[in-house]
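Our preliminary data section would be incomplete without showing what the modeling component actually yields. Below, a chain of 236 amino acids is followed by its predicted structure, encoded as C-alpha cells that our downstream tools consume directly.
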Amino acid sequence: MKKMIWSLLPLTLFAAWSFGQDRNSPPSGKPRKPQISDTIKASIYADNWFILYINGELVAVDSIKFIPHNVVSVDILPSYPMTIAVMARDNADPKTGMEYANTNIGDAGFVLKFGDGTVTNAKWKAKKYSWGPINRDTRNPRVENLPIPEDWYAVDFDDSDWGHAKEYTEAQVEPKQPFFEHDFKGAKFIWTDDIELDNTVIFRHVVKSLPDGKTRPDFSNLNNEIPDSPPKKSKR
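Predicted structure:
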C-alpha cells in the first residue's frame, strides 16, 4: 500500500503544479501570448453616443454622434474583476437640452452585451451629469450640469453613493435597425430615471467573475513578464 502511495505522489504533485496553468502555456510555465481566440466580442448601442473604458483603459468610442444610430462591435481581452465605465450622451444642445434645432425634447438609451455574458441591467450604477430642459420648459429652455470627475473611468473611482440604472423596454427606446442585426439577448436598455431630460449619463459596473463560468487565461500582467529570449537591441 505504501509503495502505491509513493508511486502516485509524483503525479499528484504534477497535477497540483499544473492546476491554474493554461493548457496552451509554453513548457516553461510562463503565460503565453494572447490569441484572437482568447478575446470576446463586445456589442454596444447608444442613443446617441458613448465612450467605453474597461479597467481604466479606453476601449471604444462611438464614431457617429447622431443619425444614423449604429452598433459598435469590438474584440476585447477580458480580465476579472472587470470594471466597466461608460459615458453616454443624448444628442442635445448643451445650452437648451433640446435637439432638432431646438424643436424637440429627445430621448435616450444604452445597451451593451459582451461575449462572456456581461449585459446591461438595473444592477449597473448610473448618475446624470447634464439634464434639461429644466421642468420641460421648451419656451425658455435651460440646462443644469455637474462637473464630470476626471477619474470617472478609473477602477478605484468611488461610486458608492450613486443610484442604480433604470431599465427600459425596446418600445420606450425605439432602437433603429442596426440594433436588431446584433445579439443583445438578455441585455436591457438602461438610463437614469428620466430617459428624456437626462442628457449626459455615466454608467459603472464591476464584473467580479466570469458570467458564463468558462475558464479563461489571465493576461492582465503579461506586459511584466520577461521572455526566455529577450529581443536583441538593434545596433546603430
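The chain has one domain: 37-207. Residues 2-18 form the longest helix (17 residues). Preliminary results of this kind motivate Aim 1 of the renewal.
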